[in-house]
Design brief:
- The chain has helices at about 10-30, 35-50, 60-70, 90-95, 115-125, 145-155, 205-215, 240-250, 250-270, 300-305, 335-345, 355-365; strands at about 55, 80, 100, 130-135, 160, 170, 180-185, 200-205, 285, 290-295, 345-350.
- The protein has a 7-stranded mixed β-sheet with strand order 1-8-7-5-4-2-3, with helices on both faces. Strands 6-9 form a two-stranded antiparallel ribbon. A two-stranded antiparallel sheet has the order 10-11.
- The protein is built from 12 helices and 11 strands.
- Helix 2 runs parallel beside helix 8.
- About 45% of the residues are buried.
């Protein structure tokens, strides 16, 4: 029995006929950009997130970049995020001309440490023009937003929640977008809510920011085709992706509950192993985009699983501050000890809603 890291086709069987019917209708009507599917998806996704506005765009990286631009962040400004994330979080900052810088993570949750965040601000606020914070909701768990928002309010900083791995997650009963100025989402096919290609969105409770983000995503125009209020980008979600996402959104809660139940099975079967299972913060809903464990012999275990036809991943093996792309920031090994320690021990085990107990059982049997 070969076990993939993720099996997207299992979920597609449930929605296949509905998706094909919708795609055929869009093709027959030749409505590929904009229109009803986009508008309805934005309405339905904002309702799902319990915020006033959603703005569809081309992908999750663009979503962060558009949020930064809408907040007026650019050259001369500094934006703080974490080194334990995919490079897209940092790329978006430099794409708008701002400077990206890092603070370490909390070793238990793998998300931004509020303590390290405030230490950085206190140390650098007189030398750097710090404008915004991008906490990353990682693996399906939100960062400590109540603590981060207290710091942001104290120092008058904007907050963009990178929520690419946190569709449906919560902390203290509130989800992404209910805390920061923006929350940004990726709908890359492997996400908990995934499109049939690239797609993204921003959500916000600020109507003015939503309108500006909408213009930025569509060449700086709002309603009139050839009236451009500002310079923007070509970052529109296409209608087929919106249609697919609308269909899948109806099943997201069910799929999330299945992920949570699968995580409980893993937790139970791993409790006697010499392995650290995911830590869930109090008053939090973890949606398990990934099921990430920590083990001292990570590479050995990964190779053993591979030898037994079990795929596993590492998210992420090289912290951003040690990536060649960020050599210019001057960081060295040892600068972010929690991130560096975690990066050498983490292993993402197979996880998707329909993974079977027999598959989980085989994975557990091959863990030393």
């Amino acid at each position: 029995m070969s076990i993939p890291f993720m099996e997207l086709s299992d979920s597609y069987y449930l929605i296949y006929d509905e998706v094909m019917e919708k795609i055929k209708k869009l093709i027959d009507n030749t409505r590929f950009i904009g229109g009803e599917e986009i508008t309805k998806f934005e309405e339905e996704f904002s309702d799902y997130c319990n915020v006033k506005n959603a703005v569809a765009c081309g992908n999750g990286t663009d979503a962060i970049m558009i949020a930064l631009k809408a907040l007026g962040i650019g050259p001369g400004d500094t934006v703080i995020t974490v080194p334990h994330t995919f490079i897209a979080t940092a790329e978006a900052v430099t794409a708008v001309g701002a400077e990206v810088d890092f603070v370490d993570i909390d070793e238990k949750t793998y998300t931004m440490s509020p303590e390290r965040l405030e230490e950085y601000i206190v140390k650098n606020k007189d030398e750097k023009n710090i404008k915004a914070i991008i906490p990353v909701h990682l693996y399906g768990q939100m960062a400590d937003m109540p603590a981060i928002m207290k710091i942001a309010d104290k120092y008058d900083l904007k907050v963009i929640e990178d929520s690419a791995q946190a569709h449906g997650a919560e902390i203290n009963g509130k989800g992404p977008g209910e805390y920061g100025d923006f929350a940004t989402f990726s709908f890359y096919p492997g996400k908990n809510l995934g499109a049939f290609g690239d797609a993204g969105a921003l959500v916000t409770n600020d109507n003015v920011l939503a309108k500006k983000a909408k213009m930025l995503s569509n060449h700086g125009r709002y309603n009139e085709k050839y009236t451009h209020q500002i310079e923007g980008y070509n970052s529109r979600m296409d209608s087929i992706q919106a249609a697919v996402l609308r269909i899948k959104l109806k099943h997201l809660d069910q799929w999330t509950n299945m992920r949570i139940e699968n995580a409980k099975k893993y937790d139970e079967l791993l409790k006697d192993k010499d392995i650290i299972t995911p830590f869930v913060r109090d008053n939090s809903k973890h949606v398990y985009h990934l099921y990430v464990v920590r083990v001292n012999n990570r590479d050995e275990l990964k190779n053993k699983l591979k030898a037994n036809d079990i795929s596993a991943g590492i998210h992420y093996p090289i912290p951003l501050h040690l990536q060649p792309a960020y050599d210019y920031l001057g960081y060295e090994k040892g600068d972010f000890p929690a991130t560096e320690k975690v990066s050498e021990e983490i292993l993402s085990l197979p996880m998707w809603p329909e993974i079977e107990i027999d598959q989980i059982g085989k994975i557990i049997k091959n863990i030393i």
